[in-house]
Amino acid sequence: MIKSCFMKYAVLILLLFVFSCKTAKQSGINPWMGYDEKNELAMSAKNESVRLRYKLIQSKILDKNDVWKNVFPQIKNFSESDYLSLEPLIFNQDIPTLQSNIKAGKLTYEKLTQWYLYRIVKFENDKNKALNNIISINPNAVKEARKKDRNKSDNNHPTYGMPVLLKDNIDFEGLATTAGAHALQFNYAKNAFIVDRLKENGAIILGKVNLSEWANYLCLECPNGYSAIGGQTLNPYGIKKIDTGGSSAGSGSSMAANYAAAAVGTETSGSILSPSSQHSLVGLKPTTGLLSRSGIVPISSTFDTPGPMTRNVIDNAIMLDAMSGTDKNDAASKNNPKNKKYWQDVKTGTLAGVKFGVIKAFLKDTLYQINIDKIKLAGGIMIDIEFEQNNNDGFGTLLNTDMKVDLANYLKNDAGDKISYRSVADIISFNKIDSLKSIPYGQGRFDGIIKENKTEEEIENLKKSVRKSGIGYFEKPMGQFQLDFILSIANRSAGFAAAANYPCVTVPMGYRTSGEPVGITFISRPFMEDRLLKVAYAFEQATKSRKVPVGY
User: Fold this and answer.
1) Which residues contact 515 (CB under 8 A, 6 or more apart)?
2) What is the dihedral of CA 68, 71, 77, 79, to 10 degrees?
3) CB distance 271 to 236 below 8 Å
4) Could you tell me which of 166, 191, 456, 469 has the fewest CB atoms within 10 Å of its CB?
């Protein structure tokens, strides 16, 4: 009996393997083959930056061929010649152009979706090109796209039919939400509020992307973009040479490589701004509360927010509009502004007559200085400012106390039925069972979380203190000089902006001699995202700095 069952099981495995190879062959793409990465790891150990010292590159948990099983059936009738013929209509195009091509009959939502899927496997199956940024693929993406083709109208939102990738700490029904963690490998939850909003506006969720595990709040000294589930995310502007930034590394890497029309990241402090800057993208960290956080694996209910990561400003505005709304399950969204025209008015932005605060300490940065001069040439009024010393005291403590409570609430109320963990301590215990497989960089931040012991009153006082300090940091110069915006670099001011709850948008401003992209970051007062995006658009059009990564 046992032998009979074993034989049947072996035959089933063989059939599945044959099917996988057959569907792969039909698509003109071979299955993924793992490789020996010892030499790469030895080389990376010599890097000066700890962010580029990898202990693992390939995931020990995720088999890419399991991901491709959801791809190959969707592209079985899509060839390399299809891919090449459609490339001029899709590659690096903004959402309005994609919609225009579809309206003109040059393209369909089905072909658009298949093109991105084909491109993902084309590059991610090549060990010399693979960026390890894709964790899972929606098996119904093309089916949904066909339905969009049948039901399209002139009144659809611009996100209608657009393939979108989600950071894998955002719940999407049908795909696991892992936060990159081995412990959440089988976390099948209901849609996050922002996912429902995207779907209501017609977007197609293409799949989930890699991230720094637990949104970069697990280990102390580890590479950005590493997770146990996804392995090491890499940057197409310099594979294994240029940092991805964190924690929304997969969102940044996949958008830079043109794997989707748009992506969604999340930020607590710098996790959208950093990878957006590192991948020459436009990344918006909205005011906390503008977008719902329900159904997103948290760090801090005080600071967390999702946000769009795109290749241009107009797509960013379109995505922000599509995700906006009031969520009864997220009190922070209750009083957010309604009916703002984020994308409809974005092209009316100007730099002329706008007052910008220039951070004196950053003027030593050549790219920053060059772009300050460009804004001035376009009519911007530049005022040099010196910020008072501020250590953002209590910020880290507040993250610890928040995550201790907020993660427990997510595990209890939002996680799927297969998840039994209920606390940070439970996750720490699980990771110790097989530390190499779970996380080879330790879990120093998690250890710090469970050591925090604050009363509710102490936590509330801490929140008020941190917020007051953050607002004062920006408001003193903004009030004194009547500034409209502060100009920063990448995520250098992210912690202060998070403390103040001030929104930020980073826009490509050029590249270092190493080829590393750098973004200039505009900071404004709460719920001024419409003005923020307008000035970002004006800067983008005046500079047009972004270049696609060579080879992608």
Assistant:
1) 237, 238, 241, 242
2) -60
3) no
4) 456
C-alpha–C-alpha distance, residues 524 and 270, integer Å: 15
Strand partners, 172: 175
Q: Regarding beta strands 226-227 and 204-209, do their DSSP bridges make them parallel or antiparallel, or are they unpaired?
A: unpaired
**Alpha carbons within 13 A on the beta-carbon side of 296:** 28
Reference 44, options 242, 225, 279, 276; nearest CA is 242
Mutual orientation of helices 95-103 and 313-323 as an angle, nearest 10°?
80
From 20-24, 203-207, 452-456, 469-473, the region with the lowest mean pLDDT: 20-24
| Span between the terminal Cα atoms of the chain, in Å | 53
Q: 28 pLDDT band (50/70/90 cuts)?
A: low
The confidence score (pLDDT) of residue 391 equals 82
Among 403, 367, 387, 373, residue whose Cα is nearest residue 520: 367
| Nearest-angstrom CA–CA distance, 499 and 478 | 16
Strand residues in 441-491 grouped as ranges (E):
485-489
The arithmetic mean of pLDDT across residues 288-302, rounded, is 98
Structural contact between residues 229 and 180, judged by C-beta atoms closer than 8 angstroms: yes
* Mean pLDDT within 409-436: 94
- pLDDT tens figures, 111-132: 999 999 999 999 999 999 999 9
pLDDT confidence band for 438 (50 / 70 / 90): confident
Q: Which residues pair with 267 in a beta bridge?
A: 305
The per-residue DSSP string of 389-422 comes to P---TTHHHHHHHHHHHHHHHHHHHTS-TT----
**Amino acid sitting at position 64:** K
Which of these, 321, 347, 277, 330, lies nearest to 536 by C-alpha position?
347
Parallel, antiparallel, or unpaired for β 163-167 and 262-267? Answer: parallel
Pairing between β-strand 134-137 and β-strand 163-167 as defined by DSSP bridges:
unpaired
Q: Does position 201 have pLDDT exceeding 90, yes or no?
A: yes
Residues 6+ positions from 83 with CB-CB distance below 8 Å: 115, 118, 119, 122
Query: How many CA atoms lie within 13 Å of 6's alpha carbon, on the beta-carbon side?
Result: 3
Q: Report the distance separating Cα 533 and Cα 536, nearest Å.
A: 5
Average pLDDT taken over every residue of the chain: 94
Instruction: Identify the pLDDT of residue 326.
Output: 96
Q: How many C-beta atoms surround the C-beta of residue 548 within 10 A?
A: 15
Closest CA to 295 of 191, 208, 213, 187: 191
The single-letter code of the amino acid at 430 is F
Diameter over CA atoms, the chain: 84
Report which of 171, 271, 232, 213 is spatially closest to residue 427, judged by C-alpha positions.
213
CA distance 170 to 209: 10
pLDDT of residue 513: 97
User: What backbone phi and psi angles, to 5 degrees, belong to 46?
Assistant: -90, -5
Q: Compute the average pLDDT of residues 75-94.
A: 98
**Residue 55: strand, helix, or coil:** coil
Known catalytic residues?
Answer: 167, 247, 271
pLDDT in tens, 224-279: 999 999 999 999 999 999 999 999 999 999 999 999 999 999 999 999 999 999 99
Strand partners, 282: 310
Looking up tokens 């201790």 gives 404
Instruction: Indicate the DSSP class of residue 206.
Output: E
